[in-house]
User: Fold these one by one.
Assistant:
Number 1:
Amino acid sequence: MADKLSFYDVKGKTKFESDKYEIKVRKGRKFAVADAPSGIKAWRILGRA
């Protein structure tokens, strides 16, 4: 089971926590991507890949 991470919903201007996220790598940096309550994708930087 994945750990819960906190994300920021830019459209809804609120913080939320989720354990349902995907890890994506862009230009050598790892991101966690989750669905925000407002319906958009919320990205969080995790670190270097």
Note: The longest strand covers residues 41-48.
Number 2:
Amino acid sequence: MLAKILKLKDVQQLNKNQQKMISGGYIPSLEEFCCGPRSQGWWIERYPFLANDPYYTCTSDVCGSNW
């Protein structure tokens, strides 16, 4: 699998798990992304692929009454 990843030309082509494997980064849960304590902008700045991921769509039912 790593050989396939290394053959890719653009990091944007990697899925979340592949990026995490390469960078050793931490990918937030939906609740962490939407509800804090860090802002959505903070997460997107560090993990730009989250901005295009439909999973990371914040709605009122994600955070409950705190949103």
Note: The chain has a mean pLDDT of 77.
